[in-house]
Amino acid sequence: MSDIPPAGGRRFRTAIAFVMLCLAAIALAACGSSSSSSNTTESTASGESTGSSEPAASNESSSGGESEAGSKSPITIGAAVAKTGVIAQYDTQALHSMELELKKANAEGGIEGRPLKLIVQDTHSDISRTPQVAESLISEGAEIMVVSCDFNYGSPAALVAQREGMVSFTLCATSPKFGVQGIGDKAYDVNVSGGNIGAVMAAYAMKAGLKNAYVLTDKGLESMITQCGAFTEAWKEKGGTIVGSNTFNNTDPSIAPEITQIQQANPGFLVACTFPPGGASALRQIRAAGLDLPIISGDGLDGTEWVKAVPTISDLWIVAHASIFGGSPEIAQILKEYKATYHSSPTGGFAITGYSTGQVIVEALKKNGGSAEGESLKNVLNEFTEFPTANGPVTFTPETHIQLERPLPVIRFTNGKPAYVETVEPEVPVDLGFGGT
User: Fold this and answer.
1) For residue 188, what are the β-bridge partners?
2) 306 secondary structure, DSSP code
3) How many whole angstroms separate alpha carbon 123 and alpha carbon 80?
4) How far apart are CA 222 and CA 149, in angstroms?
5) Which CATH superfamily is domain 40-192+328-404 in?
6) Residues 99-154 pLDDT 10s
7) Host H or E run for residue 279
8) Residues 6 or more apart from 182 whose CB is under 8 A from it?
9) CATH code, residues 194-326+409-424
10) DSSP secondary structure letter of residue 102
11) pTM of the predicted model, to two decimals?
């Protein structure tokens, strides 16, 4: 301190001390505002978010809990989902639609005066990374966990939430194992099981008068295996004939051997449980081989993003969670809100599954007095009976945390264009084990 002149006495020393305190405060503020390495996207369900590592500026609440929804601390929902990689095509649109529902709740005052805050981290569709993402979200205050659309990709995060006593929801998985059977008593799915989808596939094929099925299963996702397994069970139960079956991997560049076997079996129609990008490649190869038979598929081919690989695809019917191609005025309104908020239109029914998930979360929190505490929230959810959502009614019991027998829409592709056909009931009883899971 020898270079500080003594002139000015106590007043000078006081001024210097004040300046130094200010500098220290500025340094601390800078440290506190720096982004973490978790690459978290944060919003208060305003419908706008940022992809940067720094949290988005809040339109409805601050980190201190002040908001238009109320002055109480927020209820934080953590989303361990894929914004990149193979599952992103499903997760992203479902997450966006969930944000729309959370935004509505905030506009109406939140839950018991508590705004809903959504924090998102990208799993990059990496199963091994997912538990760390979930743990990071919990460390940032997540009280409810939302996870990816497939059981294999979403369950690692749900298992972390279960361990911590938190309730978790999958955006659109179809495995009955996403619940008590595979994760625990606090894991829930507002969507239908793969068994439900496969049963509706069989019901529609029977209704259309199709005969002699060949079943081709993509092993890339567990949901595809379940759906084709369920179709096979339901089809046989209704007296249908399976003339052959085979499997392939979504990453296979060629399915020539499988196509040869289909040709040899000479089926009346093909059941192909698959998803992009390999599913689009498989369809292109099937049509190029001269196989113009009808094809029935499940939710893996819902949407239009993959169609550019097979632009003239026709005689393809899919069973979806929800139809964005007609059939529901409520969904049409959601699509308008989606486009107005995100400046783009969703490409498939997965955009609605997230909205329904948001509806269930909001209702459960209301019934639980604004508390996200896991045990009490679980007890509330287990009392849900025919709760109406955009996708359809939701019922939970202590043993069953997924929907098993919901009517589902059928979408037909003609020259690459999808259109709603009708909504079809499953014609056989579906339980948690239907489809081989």
Assistant:
1) 169
2) G
3) 6
4) 11
5) Response regulator (3.40.50.2300)
6) 999 999 999 999 999 999 999 999 999 999 999 999 999 999 999 999 999 899 99
7) helix 278-288
8) 151, 155, 175, 176
9) 3.40.50.2300
10) H
11) 0.82
